[in-house]
Design a protein that fits this description.
Blueprint (H helix, E strand, L loop, with lengths): L9 H15 L11 E4 L6 H8 L5 E6 L4 H7 L5 E5 L2 H4 L5 H4 L2 E6 L6 H13 L4 E8 L7 H8 L16 H19 L5 E12 L3 E11 L4 H4 L9 H4 L4 E2 L7 H8 L18 H10 L11
Parallel strand pairs: 1-2, 1-4, 2-3, 4-5, 6-8
Antiparallel strand pairs: 5-7, 6-7
Helix pairs in contact: 6-8
The structure holds S-adenosylmethionine.
């Protein structure tokens, strides 16, 4: 089963689960078997395995700019995964399914959203069919020393009317959401074929690097995608739907402390009783945010 990275990157694993749960709601628009998954599977293809094993998606495409094709082909878990060597900028426009069928696309970048990533988002918002989903993972860290580079990376989306501090530290993630969401909205509203995009994810986390995961569902204009896909049931989508981030952080808890808290669930931060006074409230709140996704055996070990 997909998920070897859960032990070393538990929060990223949770965001993968969120992608699966949201993508499953695309069943409203037709069988998931008919969907195409396009991702950056790297050497382990964790996301492609999830797309096939958890969603039943059979058409799987992976784009990869760095690793050799021979090594990727050796490591792919299913021979039907089509590997496209090259960058997303050059390869995405060559994928016919993006224009002709429903797709789940996950651009799992490790960089910030720079001009080249903006181009990918722009292209996809222009072509993705209703009943598709787009997810974008990006680095959300920008220090003072990065400022000149960030200015260049943002290109036309750099807003000189803002203060420098708006582009630094925790504020940078807000700018990045603004850029990606503006691109999606602008592109979608310029389309002649009546498509709308609903923001469903803005999850901020840090397993090692500070990252954020953004997501949109594409639906026919005039249709309430939230109601049609019953997104109200997916509580982790509600912050993004209200323009707010969802912050995930891992609690520092031993296995017995985790178990003591689990026994009290469901509960909230006001009713959950700490196992003892040494467990700080902040870790109780973090626990509430992540507990339902499970605890990897070696977390905090
Ligand atoms: C974070 S890893 C993907 C991990 C995988 N999606 C998972 O779920 O574990 C990103 C991979 O995409 C490649 N990559 C990043 N940006 C790319 C781009 N713009 N075009 C092509 N490959 C890219 C990197 O070389 C790396 O192998």
């Amino acid at each position: 089963m997909a998920g070897p990275n859960y032990l070393t990157a538990p929060l990223k694993s949770i965001t993968r689960e969120m992608i699966v749960e949201i993508s499953r709601r695309l069943i409203r628009y037709g069988a998931l078997r008919d969907v195409t998954y396009v991702g950056l599977g790297s050497l382990e293809f964790v996301d492609h395995r999830m797309a096939y094993e958890r969603l039943g998606i059979e058409r799987l495409i992976s784009i990869e700019a760095e690793h050799s094709l021979e090594r990727l082909e050796f490591n792919r878990p299913y021979s039907q995964i089509e590997i496209l060597p090259g960058t997303t900028n050059t390869r995405l426009p060559e994928i016919e399914e993006l224009r002709t069928s429903r797709c789940v696309v996950w651009l799992d970048y490790t960089t910030r959203i720079r001009q080249q990533e903006q181009r990918d988002i722009s292209y996809l918002a222009n072509v993705l069919r209703p009943g598709s989903a787009l997810f974008v993972c990006a680095n959300r860290h920008a220090s003072e020393a990065d400022f000149a580079r960030v200015q260049e990376e943002q290109g036309d989306y750099f807003d000189s009317g803002l203060r420098k501090i708006d582009y630094l530290g925790p504020n940078f993630a807000d700018r990045q959401v603004h850029v990606a969401d503006s691109i999606v909205r602008r592109r979608v509203s310029a389309r002649a074929d009546q498509v709308s995009a609903t923001s469903v994810l803005d999850v901020r986390y840090a397993d090692s690097a500070k990252m954020q995961l953004l997501g949109w569902i594409f639906a026919p204009t005039g249709e309430d995608a939230v109601a049609e896909c019953r997104l109200e049931e997916l509580d982790f989508t509600s912050p993004a739907r209200s323009g707010e981030p969802l912050d995930l952080a891992w609690p520092t808890l031993t296995a017995p402390e985790w178990a003591a808290l689990s026994r009290q669930m469901p509960a909230d931060a006001t009713t959950l009783v700490p196992p003892h006074k040494w467990v700080d409230r902040v870790h109780i709140e973090r626990f509430i945010g992540v507990h339902r996704w499970g605890r990897p055996a070696a977390a905090n070990a």
